[in-house]
Amino acid sequence: MKIIIAGAGEVGFHLAKLLSYESQEITLIDTKKDSLTYAGEHLDIKTIKGDATSISILREARIESVELFIAVTSSETTNITACVLAKQLGAQRTIARISNTEFIDEKDVIGFSQFGIDELISPESLAASEIELLLNQYGFNDTYEFEGGALTMLGLRLSRTAKFVGKTVKEAAEIYSELHFIPIAIQRYGTQYTIIPRGDTQFKENDKVVFMTSKGGDAELFDLSGKVKTEIK
């Protein structure tokens, strides 16, 4: 599958990392040379320096042959505009990262699809109902697949012996660099609020964590959590 990701920040980099493990053909677009250089050195992807709302940049990325275009820059306006242009130029499916959750709540009323935006996502409320469900379950009890199974979301509680405990998200990614995962939500033991993890967020005992992983990555996460996978009837 040919995929373009606009935005080489934390979200874009990790999406590119996950999808590149699935032998997808990934192109990453960003205006920052340093971010692209880092991504190019660590991932098997193509990088293009430029503005994702530029028609010439999108054409350079061969937008007309792309099956999935994902805009996850820090600018909501850029993401929406880029998706509209990408769709008009031939992208089969588009996904825009937004910060205004009202857009998600009212997406059917506004009709974003008629403008060329197939899906809206917000890191702060990504699959909110599924995350809430997973965070309120003990251990691995369910998984949710996205993009035809290329990505899987699952939840677990970190036991005292879990290898993640005591490490930051960045440290875990460096130590287990061969693993393909992103933590997208943490519910800290004894609290009622959900943490959106960043690189310096530390995993703690009894954390309930929701991970996004590439195909097959759930088995690796089971192993690191010290749990035995059981099928839910």
Descriptive report:
With 233 residues, the chain is an alpha/beta fold. The chain has two domains: 120 residues, Rossmann fold; 98 residues, Alpha-Beta Plaits. The chain is built from nine helices and eleven strands. The protein has a six-stranded parallel sheet, sandwiched between helices. Strands 7-8-11-9-10 form a five-stranded antiparallel sheet, with helices on both faces. Helix 2 links the parallel strand 2 and strand 3. The C terminus is likely disordered.
Task: Summarize the structure in short.
This protein has 2 domains: 2-121, NAD(P)-binding Rossmann-like Domain (Rossmann fold, 3-Layer(aba) Sandwich), CATH 3.40.50.720; 128-225, Regulator of K+ conductance, C-terminal domain (Alpha-Beta Plaits). Helices cover 31% and strands 23% of the residues.
Number of strands: 11
Q: Helix amount, in percent?
A: 25-40%
Order of neighbouring strands in the sheet with most strands: 3-2-1-4-5-6
Sheet with most strands: 6 strands, parallel
Supply the CATH superfamily name of the largest domain: NAD(P)-binding Rossmann-like Domain
SS content category: alpha/beta
How are the elements arranged and paired?
Blueprint lengths: L1 E5 L3 H11 L4 E6 L2 H10 L3 E4 L5 H6 L7 E4 L4 H13 L5 E4 L3 H5 L1 H4 L8 E3 L6 H8 L7 E4 L4 E7 L11 H7 L5 E7 L6 E2 L12 E7 L2 H9 L8
Parallel strand pairs: 1-2, 1-4, 2-3, 4-5, 5-6
Antiparallel strand pairs: 7-8, 8-11, 9-10, 9-11
